[in-house]
Design a protein that fits this description.
This protein is mainly α. The chain has helices at residues 6-25, 32-44, 49-54, 60-72, 94-117, 120-140; strands spanning 76-80, 88-92.
Length: 141
């Protein structure tokens, strides 16, 4: 039997998640990656583009364009740095918080689906394995 390679399987699962979230966010003129950014901004509070990049949420070349789009749509507000005129942080607007609630609901529902399929021990093992893989990929990149 020809088994699917782990990186391919992880990629396929990620693609399916993005596809479902893209559909949910279509009415807000957003893609899954932009919704995840709103989710992380809510989680972190006021944050900088650099922090979003370092978390692996978005690539450096795309951050400026993405944050500009989110600002134009009224989902985030940019807060200029008092120290460096070129720097800024971002926070959610009330409109952005509503979108974040949609993303959070999607993530919670998906998490609950995993909990229905896997027992607590399997969930812990899966989380530990994925964290281990992520940390090793980061270390080796």
């Amino acid at each position: 039997m020809n088994r699917i390679k782990i990186p391919i399987l992880v990629s396929r699962i990620s693609k399916l998640q993005r596809k479902i979230l893209n559909e949910k966010l279509k009415n807000f003129n957003l893609e899954a990656s932009q919704g995840i950014i709103l989710f992380k901004i809510k989680e972190l509070g006021e944050t900088t583009p650099k922090q979003l990049i370092e978390m692996g949420i978005i690539e450096k070349p795309a951050i400026s364009k993405t944050l500009t789009k989110l600002e134009k749509l009224g989902y985030i507000t940019k807060i200029p740095s008092l120290i460096d005129a070129r720097s800024f942080s971002v926070s959610l607007t009330k409109k952005g918080e509503k979108i974040e609630e949609c993303v959070n609901e999607f993530i919670e529902n998906l998490n609950n689906e995993f909990k229905l399929i896997l027992n607590d021990n399997s969930l812990n093992q899966l989380e530990n394995l994925l964290t281990f893989l992520e940390n090793n990929l980061i270390k080796n990149s």
